[in-house]
């Protein structure tokens, strides 16, 4: 069984990015890429993600800015922040950290972002271009999964990929990306969700199983074909008195039992989550180089 190690892979890619930043930006006296994030409220998971983003930016030589606001920030004020970032030529790309407080319309905020600075890949223009297989900023987590499959040389062409979960952030875009006619996709994709009857009927037929259901330990060994590749996108905090943080992270897959049956699997933590941040860096690099027109 191969452990699809997001930690080592993300470190390798960050090293590649850092080398490019030094060679093509710093050594040539050009402005280094600048990634900004907007954080509204005190959600612990969001704060951790943004902190990791800041750390990763520093490691590769990017400038990183974080705009922090209280949870009661009005939608109008947040839209003003988006307009400011859109018009700041020093900032190459930015993200609005989700989820936002319930009184703010996420779709309205995302649609306000300049698509050429939308390094999260959530703007309808980028989503539409992704569907048409045109150059665009890909959503970070699906982009990370595609990169992982490619770097570990996992064949996707002609394979049956089953995706559990149809969110706009992971499930729907990864199913589109893997079905595209490209040398890194060409899979036959089945998209399952909470209303799919007898999910096991589909999951046991998967050559590659991507799990983003948001249900801890949802996939058990009896749901997996022997030799399948399993990608676990789930992330759940479980109280743990024996850890410094006071919690332990678990995925949507019952790792111990499924790992005995599959040919390759991502751990939680140390899998897809780290690749998400790397994808954000890669998108920011593209934005800085004006590769998306």
Which features characterize this protein?
single chain; three-stranded parallel sheet; 293 residues; alpha/beta; Rossmann fold; 2 domains; 39% helix
Quick structural summary:
The chain has 293 residues and is an alpha/beta fold. The chain has ten helices and eleven strands.
Describe the fold and architecture.
Helix content is 39%, strand content 16%. The chain is α/β, with parallel strands linked by helices. The protein has 2 domains: 29-116, Leucine Dehydrogenase, chain A, domain 1 (Rossmann fold); 140-273, Rossmann fold. Strands 1-11-8-7-5-6 form a 6-stranded parallel β-sheet. It has a 3-stranded parallel β-sheet with strand order 3-2-4, covered by helices on one side. Helix 1 (6-26) packs parallel to helix 10 and helix 6 (140-151) crosses helix 7 (171-179). The longest helix is centred in the first third of the chain and has 21 residues, at 6-26. The chain is globular, with a radius of gyration of 19 Å. It starts with a strand and ends in a 5-residue tail after the last helix.
């Amino acid at each position: 069984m191969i452990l699809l190690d997001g930690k080592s892979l993300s470190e390798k890619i960050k090293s590649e990015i850092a080398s490019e930043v030094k060679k093509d930006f710093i050594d040539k006296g050009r402005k280094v890429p600048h990634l900004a994030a907007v954080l509204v409220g005190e959600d612990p998971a969001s704060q951790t993600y943004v902190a990791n983003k800041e750390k990763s930016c520093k490691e590769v030589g990017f400038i990183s800015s974080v705009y922090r606001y209280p949870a009661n920030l009005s939608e109008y004020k947040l839209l003003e922040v988006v307009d400011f970032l859109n018009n700041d030529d020093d900032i190459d790309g930015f993200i609005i950290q989700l989820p936002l407080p319930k009184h703010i319309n996420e779709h309205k905020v995302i649609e306000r972002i300049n698509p050429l600075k939308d390094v999260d890949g959530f703007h309808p223009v980028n989503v539409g271009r992704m569907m048409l297989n045109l150059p665009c900023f890909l959503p970070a987590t699906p982009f990370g999964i595609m990169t992982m499959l490619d770097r570990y040389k996992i064949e996707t062409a002609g394979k049956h990929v089953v995706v559990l979960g149809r969110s706009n952030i992971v499930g729907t875009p990864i199913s589109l990306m893997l079905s595209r006619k490209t040398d890194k996709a060409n899979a036959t994709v089945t998209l399952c969700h909470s209303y799919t009857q007898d999910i096991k009927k589909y999951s046991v037929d998967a050559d590659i199983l991507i799990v983003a259901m948001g249900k801890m330990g949802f996939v058990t060994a009896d749901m997996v074909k022997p030799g399948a590749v399993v990608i676990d996108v789930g992330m759940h905090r479980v109280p743990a008195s024996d850890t410094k943080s006071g919690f332990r992270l678990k995925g949507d897959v019952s790792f111990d039992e499924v790992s005995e049956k599959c040919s390759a699997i991502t751990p939680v933590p140390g899998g897809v989550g780290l690749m998400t941040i790397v994808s954000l860096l890669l998108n920011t690099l593209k934005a800085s180089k004006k590769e998306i027109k």
